[in-house]
Amino acid sequence: MEAGEDALSNETKDEIFTSLLLTIEEDKPSGELFSFLYDLLVEFSFIDQSTKKLSERLDFFDVFFSLLFHCDVSLQVVLLKKLNGLVHVYSRVKGYCCQHNWQHRLINILPQQNPFVLQEMLHLIETIGTFSIFPRETRQLLRLLQTPCLSYHKSQTSNKSGFHYWPAIVQALERMAKHRSSPQSFLDFNGCSSGLHLPSFSTWPLTSGYTFALWLRIESFSDPTSRENYRPCIYSFLTNEGFGVEVFFLQNTLIAQTRQGKSSSKTFVRLNYTFKDKVWYFIAITHLYHFFTTSEITLYVDGKQVDSQQLVYPKFEKAPEYCFIGTNSISSNTTLSLPSQDSNARIENSPTVSGAATERSQPIFGQMGQILLFQEALGQTELAQIYGLGPSVKPELKADTSVEVGQNGASFILKSKTVKLFLAYDPRAVVDGYFCLDTCTCSADRSATLKSAYVVSTMSLFDSLYCIGGLNIILPLFHRLTFGLKPILGVNQFLTLNNPSYNNNNNNNNGSVAPLLGLLVTL
């Protein structure tokens, strides 16, 4: 029996499953069936990579669109709008669509569609493209720009007016080209047993202050395993004696905790800022040591200070043995009884804190971009500069290609000064899908270990265009403007939209616009 099942191709299985559904629905798929399929898509996209073969037994794209084309055109449009909304909300669904080549497959079936259905499919391609679009799909879209219009045929009746590709595709490309709010590469944590496990360090230079900064997106503040006492932890640095510091979420606000030994009471503060799920933030937490007064912890969001509280600085007589990012040490859990958000944020030496361990991990359910740990407490001016480098934290370079602002080994160069880094973990520096190198040293003994987390790599439209030839590919296509279609935006506006570097890097092409008009391009 198993051998017979293995002999069936995925295509055959999809056809059998689709045929069965159509038989049950009497060839008229219902709204309830598509609601089931939407739930199935979310479930497939949230399956862990280690068990992803479960979702590969069924090709969701083939099943969904085979059923969709059995519906009336008006219903197809409504169902595609709902699908587009679902893809827009969930980052993991976008990743699933990219992994299964949805853009490529949608573009292949565009010419056969009713213009209204085609428009919704282009919106879906655009939604996925704002997340990632690769060179092959970019080439396909540019090929369509060479087609002035499409005549849609139905029941041997031709739509004489046709459907113009140019405005619709250029609008989609324009929106895809807008500023990205997410890193091009990031770590995805499943919230069940995931985390970044750091090695033990021989030294710990963060004795007078530090800044922990990262790009973070929370998929949900609820535990995906439906367990109680869920407090997803951003970072946890503890010694075996119980000294250290942790920062974690309680619902959608951050709690900072200093631990002063296993037998001592703990100190907590609530950092007053309400986070939203499914939104990328640049979060920076600075902790500054004061000798005569209580030390200060400050929260910055997107380069701006949002709250500051007094919190005892962690006492490290030696380097911490238990270091985690995106989760915590199970032994570090405590049962907390924190005041409401309306009460005072400071809870120093609180008698309401119990030392009983809850014996559960607190993994983040979401995504993380580059992670930076500085050896001093930075201010708003410096953090605004880092935020200005964008979610992928790309350095600004001088004319001689040296770094003007950004990371340069164990240093981070700012306009006003150079700051020392203690750790820097970048999703682009993950080796074998398991080890994340510390880009400060690129030393194997400083590598962090990924647990139930994986790297998601995406590509922006501009990078994709660069890979297939850049301006020399784009400019010839604008000869289609002579077909009498009103242009959506000018050549220069499109090419430099939120990407001023194209002006700087392509000055030699400025004079070649006119000669290139009217030429055909081979893609």
Overview of this protein structure:
The protein has 17 helices and 24 strands. It is of the alpha+beta class. The strands form 3 sheets. The chain has a 20-stranded antiparallel beta sheet that branches. The chain has a two-stranded antiparallel sheet with strand order 1-4. It has a two-stranded antiparallel sheet with strand order 2-3.
- What is the total tally of β strands? 24
In what range is the share of β-strand residues? 25-35%
**Helix share bin:** 25-40%
Q: Overall mean pLDDT score?
A: 79
Note the gap between the termini: 47 Å
- Biggest sheet statistics: 20 strands, antiparallel
How does the helix and strand content classify structurally? alpha+beta
How many helices? 17
Which descriptors would you attach to this protein?
523 residues, alpha+beta, 20-stranded antiparallel beta sheet, two-stranded antiparallel sheet, 30% helix, disordered N terminus, disordered C terminus
Compile the SSE list and pairings.
Layout: H1 2-7, H2 10-24, H3 31-45, H4 53-56, H5 60-68, H6 73-89, H7 91-99, H8 102-109, H9 115-131, H10 135-145, E1 149-150, E2 153-154, E3 157-158, E4 163-164, H11 165-176, E5 185-190, E6 195-197, E7 209-218, E8 233-238, E9 243-250, E10 253-260, E11 266-271, E12 280-288, E13 296-301, E14 304-310, E15 322-325, E16 346-347, E17 365-374, H12 380-388, E18 396-397, E19 403-408, E20 411-413, E21 418-431, E22 435-438, E23 448-451, E24 453-457, H13 461-467, H14 471-474, H15 491-496, H16 501-505, H17 513-516
Antiparallel strand pairs: 1-4, 2-3, 5-17, 5-24, 6-15, 6-23, 7-12, 7-17, 8-9, 8-15, 9-10, 10-11, 11-16, 12-13, 13-14, 17-21, 18-19, 19-20, 20-21, 21-22, 22-23
Helix pairs in contact: 2-5, 3-7, 6-7, 6-9, 8-9, 9-11
